[in-house]
Amino acid sequence: MRRRLTRLPRRLLFRPHLALLLFGSLSLISGWLWFGTGLFLGNGSGLAVFGLSLAATLVAALALLRRRLQLGGLLLLLVATVVVPTLALIALRWKTGAPILMHDGAYQTEEAMRLLLSGLDPYGVDYTTSSMRLWHWYVNTPIDPSLYHYVYPPAVFLLPLPAYALAQWVGVPFDVRLIDLMVEVVAAVAILKLPWRWEWRYLVLAALFLDPFFYLAQGRNDVLFLAPVLLGVLAWERDRPLLASLAFGAAAAFKPFAVFFLPLVALLLWRRSRAERWSTPRRLSVLAGLVLPGMVTIVPFFLWNPAAYWADTVSFVSGGDPHRYPIQGYGFSEILLLLKIIPSPSAYFPFSILQVLAALPALAFGIRRVVARPALATALCWATASLALFLFFSRFVNDNYLAALLFLAVLAGATRRGARGSGQKADRAITTGSAAAA
User: Fold this and answer.
1) Which of 125-139, 167-181, 325-339, 424-438 has the lowest mean pLDDT?
2) Helix crossing, 351-372 with 376-392: angle to 10°?
3) In this structure, how many other beta carbons lie within 10 angstroms of the beta carbon of residue 68?
4) Looking at beta carbons, which pairs linking 361-366 to residues 24 or more positions away fall under 8 Å?
5) In which band, very low, low, confident or very high, does the pLDDT at 437 lie, cut at 50, 70 and 90?
6) Which residues neighbour 411 within 8 Å (Cβ) at sequence distance 6 or greater?
7) Can you tell me the distance from the alpha carbon of 215 to that of 238, in angstroms, rounded to the nearest whole number?
8) Between 142 and 381, where is the model more confident?
9) From residue 435, how far is each of 265, 267, 384 by CA, in Å?
């Protein structure tokens, strides 16, 4: 009975029909609140955007029921739910000049690019003196501590920088969400190219693009690190270890969340190099791919102003900076705040110690599991578990963090099922080589 109960969530989650019902329903509710009510796009345009998403949902459901063109129906839904609202919000911004419903991180990324092209370091800058202070989310409110820091790694503004510079030079409007859309297309193509049954690819597509808590149309940048993770899975499934290494390294360069993948993937690569008897130069070059993207993008800005970079990307989020991030969200910190153990959202508390104490044992156990069962799905599973514990004991847990954890859990489960169905070569080579060595 207990075994059946533990299997129930996996059985429910890993079914295309239930995935469409869950994520499709959430997406429709979100679409109605943001667009269907006419609050932001107006009654006519807002209802049109919502109506298109509703119609596409019905088409996707019909394709599933008839068992024909299931992935095509889902892709149509993704265009209606993600691409159309994003383009509508971009068009509204270009028409009115106001970044309505644009995420503050996306807007600040554009400010960071503007500063860099002016020869200034985006880190350690007081963004209260920029147009960020006049943004509609910050008007008539106390100064938000986020305005004193740029929290994202350099890769976040380096990726769209060439397109932004070209737009400035030509004199055409620019919106960083256009680059996000391009990354989303890359992620979708990577999923479709996976050598899995259509059911597993369907689940991964739905979990990434239909979860409204990613706020893709508003420009939250989770897809910037999730897309390289997907590319890493694709490269591993296609027996391209160097590309897989670079992809996981790029994911960590875009968001520190992906750091938990690096030691487990490194262990997989090391085991494979031993099993297949790689030469030393090849082994070192493949392992170097895990850290190279981060070094190339982060080190120059850290050397430019170490104190500013540390304050923006570490002290601010951990609570060590005077303008610390306020406690909020769905984690342990909110529990302490509700119990009055922490006096106020702006108070300091050593969450970093709790994060290390919680995440490191899980990561160590994950290393043991990868040694015992050297498969990419095992690495993904335990990296996600370690990240979940790390985030639970952090200073804040945003809703998009929960969406990312759910997606990574779905990806790990789909990878396990997909590898079984495709007879995945890389995992099999490690296992066979280990058995032979034993």
Assistant:
1) 424-438
2) 170
3) 10
4) 362/386, 362/389, 363/260, 363/263, 363/264, 366/264
5) very low
6) 204, 207, 229, 230, 233, 380
7) 31
8) 381
9) 20, 17, 27
pTM for the structure as a whole: 0.92
Q: Using CA atoms, how far apart are residues 84 and 423, in angstroms rounded to an integer? A: 38
Percentage of residues of the chain with pLDDT beyond 90: 70
State the Cα–Cα distance between residues 159 and 179, nearest whole angstrom. 8
Cβ atoms of 434 and 275 within 8 Å: the answer is: yes
Distance CA 339, CA 366 (A): 33
Q: Which residue did the predictor score with more confidence, 324 or 210? A: 210
Each residue's pLDDT tens digit, 113-159: 999 999 999 998 888 877 776 666 666 666 777 788 899 999 999 99
Q: What is the average pLDDT across 169-187?
A: 95
Residue 438, pLDDT > 60, answer no
pLDDT (tens digit, 9 = 90+) per residue, 40-49?
888 888 999 9
For the purposes of burial, counting CB atoms within 10 Å of the CB of 51, is it exposed (0-12), middle (13-18) or buried (19 or more)? middle
Tokens describing residue 409: 């859990």
Nearest in space to 265 (alpha carbons), one of 179, 343, 381: 381
How far is the C-alpha of 36 from the C-alpha of 51, rounded, in Å? Answer: 8
423 compared with 149, residue with greater pLDDT: 149
Q: Which residues pair with 329 in a beta bridge?
A: 397
Q: What's the pLDDT at 211?
A: 95
3-state SS string for the chain = CHHHHHHHHHHHHCCHHHHHHHHHHHHHHHHHHHHHCCCCCCHHHHHHHHHHHHHHHHHHHHHHHHCCCHHHHHHHHHHHHHHHHHHHHHHHHHHHCCCCCCCHHHHHHHHHHHHHHCCCCCCCCCHHHCHHHHCCCCCCCCCCHHHHCCCCCCHHHHCCHHHHHHHHHHCCCCCCHHHHHHHHHHHHHHHHHCCCCHHHHHHHHHHHHCCHHHCHHHCCCCHHHHHHHHHHHHHHHCCCHHHHHHHHHHHHHHCHHHHHHHHHHHHHHHHHHHHHCCCHHHHHHHHHCCCHHHHHHHHHHHHHCHHHHHHHHHHHHHCCCCCCCCCEECCHHHHHHHCCCCCCCCCCCCHHHHHHHHHHHHHHHHHHHHHHCCCHHHHHHHHHHHHHHHHHCCCEECHHHHHHHHHHHHHHHHHHHHHHHHCCHHHHHHHHHHHHHC
Does the pLDDT of residue 410 top 60, yes or no?
Answer: yes
Whole-number Å distance between alpha carbons of 152 and 56: 34
